[in-house]
Amino acid sequence: MEKRRFRSRLLSALLAALLGCTALTGCGKKDTESLSSDSPAETTASAEVTDTSAETAAATTETPATEHISPTEQITSALGSQIDVDATLNRDSDDDSQKNYKVSLSQLIEEGDIINSFTFVFYAGDGSSNIGTYKGGCGISVTQDCAAATSTGWYQSPDFSVQAQGSYVEVTWNVPSEIQAYIPATGDVQIGYWWGNTSTVNLRNVICSYTRTATIPVDGTQTISVGRTLKHGDDSTNSVRVPLADVLGTDGIPQAVTFDIRAGGALGKFTGAFGITTESWYQTGTIAVPTQASSLNLTWIIPEDIKANIPQTAELMLGYWWGEVQEITLESVTVKYSSPSGTITAPSGTQTTEAAESQPAQTQAQQTATQAPQTQAPAAQTKAPQGGSTQTTPTATEAKKPSGGGQTVQNTSSAAEIVKAIKVGWVLGNSLDSYDATYQAKDLETYWGNVKTTKATIDTVKAKGFNAIRIPVSWGNHLDSSNTINSAWMDRVQEVVDYAIDNDMYVILNMHHDDYLWVHPVYAEESAVTSKYTRIWQQIADRFKSYDNHLLFEGLNEPRMVGSAAEWTGGTAEEHTVINHLLQKFVETVRASGGNNAKRPLIVTTHAASITDTALNGLTLPNDKNLIVSIHNYAPWQFTTLEYPNVKNFDDAGKQELEQEFDKLKTKFIDKGIPVIIGEFGAEDKDNTSARKDYYAYYIKAAKQRGIPCFIWDNGGKDSYGLLDRSNNTWYYGDIADAAVSAAAA
Description:
Blueprint: E1 72-90, H1 96-99, E2 100-104, E3 114-124, E4 133-141, E5 154-156, E6 160-163, E7 168-174, H2 177-180, E8 188-195, E9 200-217, E10 220-231, E11 239-243, H3 244-248, E12 253-263, E13 268-276, E14 282-283, E15 286-291, E16 295-301, E17 315-322, E18 327-338, E19 350-354, H4 361-364, H5 415-421, E20 424-428, H6 455-464, E21 468-471, H7 487-501, E22 506-510, H8 514-517, H9 526-544, E23 551-554, H10 573-592, E24 602-605, H11 613-618, E25 627-632, H12 637-640, H13 652-668, E26 676-681, H14 689-705, E27 710-714, E28 724-725, E29 730-731, H15 734-745
Parallel strand pairs: 20-21, 20-27, 21-22, 22-23, 23-24, 24-25, 25-26, 26-27
Antiparallel strand pairs: 1-9, 1-15, 2-8, 3-7, 3-9, 4-5, 4-6, 4-8, 10-18, 10-19, 11-17, 12-16, 12-18, 13-14, 13-15, 13-17, 28-29
Helix pairs in contact: 9-10, 13-14, 14-15
């Protein structure tokens, strides 16, 4: 809730003793296959052999030229493809083939793509009648091993209804997550029309939203500002071409291209195409991305079969065929490239990001492409500030390590062991998590009314009996154009973390209100969000990788689409899918950073950190054995919120609600060996201190009985959730804090 709220070649050296030869010279064989190795390039060693005659011959040494092998990155692109169709479906026909229409998936996706949804665009058969309510269903081919198939090789959806807009209707089918991995590109998708006010409807377009992942060679990334306007409806203005040499010079081979576009309003649907000069001209089919955002990052993974034919004089093209706004601006173009030499001569006016130093293959596979940032404020789309000096995040070797103290936590401690050791936690709310959607505020730590956090504040919390602290941090206001965290901000975050570490407290460090700024879990923004998200967590993980397991990382706070209809009711299948992808990327990124992060317990959560069945069932845990699930639960809601000022008593019904919800978490996770914490709970002040004292004690004791430690949300406000007066480090409600600590110790 708002609480003011990621090839090298294996050396082949042939040293063969040839019978009868008096001398051996070094020779190397060039292997044409790509193999994986820890070293980017290797050279053959020279050999010198002396014969048995009196005459000594010096051996000849040959050293072949070193061949550069590019490091690789795994890149993900969320796009959509659109095909035009002219097919009539007749609800009244006795022939089922007249009620259904099949489309070959090969027209829409490539093998390996994950399909997220389909949108079918219909018009009334006569072009003018009101369709009313469209009733129908969808079906799709699945592989033989798909457990969710409704018949062999086929999945049929339940019937659905969609309200038309007069003679026009868009029917969107969100493909169930349980079948997405089993859909072959060689199959078909089918749409059926069972009932509506018109006997016939005409299918005009089919849009397939999908996610494509590829591992590409990357030596670096180049970004060039463009700032050119595209207008759909006019062939002279509906496309922009950018000379590739303006981005890469003459030595780079493009591997993936990201087009950063902006509009003056909601796009509704971006419809266009990508293109590039090859031996002639290569252009994609129609790209279609439904979105209500006014900004979009479109990442095109260059097809493998055209890369060798791209000349130095090539041009990149973005076409804009249709959208709800007529004009868009291509702000910038970012190209991930490889190079035979490993470097390029960057043209003036470009921003350069070099590839990470070559690493073992398993680490390379976990890297993610860095794209131009996409930033969006909660109420109005706001571009992140560009320019300014680039801040360089200090490496982990420069970071302060924990000073130690009385309690020892081994870095091999499991998530379950640490959760068991946490008694009760306190949350430093509305401080480092404060943000400004306009990107204008200067001192964000105090922007929402709290004083700067001091060591004395954390000492006060520790002295009260809390042995854990959750430090929410919002990062979006502290990034430059390459998503590098401002060094002063990172230093400040570390300073506050150290206040708690030096007190031998467990510390949770997270990404908090970035959901309001840019973490939008929708398919249209997934690629851009994932790149930015990964970049931030790479830096956090690197800074703190020497810290022991007193420090825990939490990947997301309350991930959701802010303001959506399902914001607090469990979310949508689309949101669940994107959130699950982000959490997996979070785990992979932290683990790949090395140091103590290889075994650090990591915290994940549901949609909006919700305890609803929809949210709990939508969570797919990342592939990792050292995880903690965090839930936020402000139940019973009417008692805990000022939205109901007259509900001041914590009654038996409220106690029963808590018992049932904690039992749900125990059954869902704890009984399966997955530890759980309550990352936030609390009750706002309604001049009912006694009832609140009972509530905090009952809540913590009931949760503890199921093995769940709790963290109290404190936003600093005496008339809200605040327990501690941070201005003088005295307690507004010390008796409530005492009751909470006592309940945890009981």
